[in-house]
Amino acid sequence: MCRHLGWLGRPRSLAELILEPPGGLLVQSYAPRRQQHGLLNADGWGAGFFDGAVPRRWRSASPLWGDASFASVAPALSSHCVVAAVRSATVGMPIEASAAAPFTDGNWLLSHNGVVNTAVLPTCSGAESVCDSAILAASVFERGVGSLGELVAEIGAADPQARLNILAANGSRLLATTWGDTLSMLHSADGVLLASEPYDDDPRWVDIPDRHLVDAHDGEVSVTALEVIR
């Protein structure tokens, strides 16, 4: 149910991160290698990046592979911090640009790879869409992204079927959770790349264990287990 990536490091173009890798999000939109739920990610896509401290977004309800306008502009758009995703909509959820990640509160960009029963989510306002991911994003923003790990554990306890892989970035910090789906990390001298699955065969990719929180900032990365609430 979706594939996403997050980058924090030296400025890189959106084309370099999303379109050009042999197994990047463009390819993952029609031929993901590690996706366990769904075969395609054709229900929209989004690319968010930071222009200084300001988050910018380009989102669509159409498949990424058919967007010639983005393909023509992506090489000219670069940023030190990027969050992007391709979407496979949960059954019954709307297919619209506002339902495509990344979501934002004006400070953070957030993507959700998974599914959640919205009935267990905290009451909140400001969701960009009625889809589960948008309501989850609004819940995270209202609680505070700094409490992401705790909130994911709470929601996971309330909905045992939930898959809660989340990526969030504010331009200087990149956070991610694994809860029911895959996530890999490539940490180099240039920065930190987190992705639902590796986009190439670089041997430096490492898989993040399930139910863990990744926190990258100031050139450092920590990976800690999420406490399971019983």
From TrEMBL:
Enzyme nomenclature, EC number: 3.5.1.118
Lineage of the organism: Bacteria, Bacillati, Actinomycetota, Actinomycetes, Mycobacteriales
UniProt source species: Mycolicibacter sinensis (strain JDM601)
Protein name: Gamma-glutamyl-hercynylcysteine sulfoxide hydrolase
Domain of life according to the entry: Bacteria
NCBIfam families the record matches: ergothioneine biosynthesis protein EgtC (TIGR03442)
Reaction it catalyzes: gamma-L-glutamyl-hercynylcysteine S-oxide + H2O = S-(hercyn-2-yl)-L-cysteine S-oxide + L-glutamate
Alphabetized Pfam families for the sequence: GATase_4 (PF13230)
Molecular-function GO term, any one: hydrolase activity, acting on carbon-nitrogen (but not peptide) bonds, in linear amides
Keywords: Glutamine amidotransferase, Hydrolase
InterPro entries the record matches: EgtC, EgtC-like, EgtC_Actinobacteria, Gamma-glu_amide_hydrolase, Ntn_hydrolases_N
Gene Ontology annotations of biological process type: ergothioneine biosynthetic process
UniProt pathway: Amino-acid biosynthesis; ergothioneine biosynthesis
General function of this protein: Catalyzes the hydrolysis of the gamma-glutamyl amide bond of hercynyl-gamma-L-glutamyl-L-cysteine sulfoxide to produce hercynylcysteine sulfoxide, a step in the biosynthesis pathway of ergothioneine.
Gene: egtC
